[in-house]
Amino acid sequence: RSQPQDQWARNCFALGDMYRRGMGTVQDYERAKIHYSAACLEGRHGRACLQQAYIAAKGSAGEVDNDQARLLYDEACSLNEPAGCAGLGNMMYMGLGGTRNRSRAVTLLQEACAAEFDWACTRLIEYGLPTRLDRF
User: Fold this and answer.
1) Of the candidates 18, 8, 62, which has an alpha carbon nearest to the alpha carbon of residue 38?
2) How confident is the model at residue 60 (pLDDT cuts 50, 70, 90)?
3) pLDDT, average across residues 96-101
4) Spatial contact of 123 and 109, defined as CB atoms under 8 Å apart
5) Nearest Cα to Cα of residue 34 among 17, 50, 16
6) Are 16 and 53 in contact (CB under 8 A)?
């Protein structure tokens, strides 16, 4: 961490990816989690937040942790990652990892869809909702 924040966070994210994928080492989700979390929460690296949120939501490192996933998707969204906003919106819509807030969820999903994150558009369609919010 003697390098500038963006550099060490990027490197920490890359190391997390190596552990998650088992590239050059034994696959180890717990070690990946440590590096992703540091890159996300200390280094403000949006993609690290997304990857760790996905691992937490799917239970890849053991048990499903929706509270942690929602926190990390929220962090990724605050770092302007459309996928983070979509993940947070989806969790809010279904009431996973916290309080259900469908109006905020729809807005997050629509904004992610407008940013051309196709998964958010698909999710809106599956929920029977408009893919865009008309603003006047």
Assistant:
1) 8
2) confident
3) 97
4) yes
5) 16
6) no
